[in-house]
Write a structure and sequence with these properties.
Blueprint: E1 3-7, H1 9-23, E2 27-31, E3 37-39, E4 42-44, H2 46-55, H3 69-79, H4 99-117
Parallel strand pairs: 1-2
Antiparallel strand pairs: 3-4
Helix pairs in contact: 1-2
């Protein structure tokens, strides 16, 4: 039985993974591209990326990125002699929902910009 899934967001990607475990190659996923955007000249397709990460079993513990991607990028930057500061708020996921974390993150950003641009 072939199945086509229209997928969007984290829930759609998780559903795609579950259906893939049941159906294997019989599953076709059509991912939302309505949220695609361009950042610094690069095309970003969050939903197709997310579906791909889930189906490839490469999703990280946050549920929205490639496992280890941040740490690999930081390691490469350090190899190039760049300063890296990585801040994680244990009570947050993707983005900030707690005002205190938002304020703290902006304060750290301002301090970094001041120390590197002045």
């Amino acid at each position: 039985m072939s199945v086509a899934l229209l997928s969007g967001g984290t829930g759609g990607a998780k559903l795609a993974r579950g259906l893939y475990e049941l159906l294997g190659e019989e599953l076709a996923v059509i991912a939302n591209t309505g949220d695609d955007l361009e950042i610094y000249g690069a095309c970003v397709s969050p939903d197709p990326d997310l579906v791909s990460f889930w189906l490839a079993d490469r999703i990280d513990e946050r549920g929205w990125g490639i496992a280890g991607d941040s740490f690999n990028a930081m390691a490469m930057l350090r190899e190039l002699g760049r300063e890296v500061e990585y801040v994680v708020f244990e009570d947050e996921g993707h983005g900030f929902t707690r005002y205190a974390n938002d304020v703290h993150a902006y304060r750290l950003t301002c301090e970094w910009l001041e120390s590197h641009l002045t």
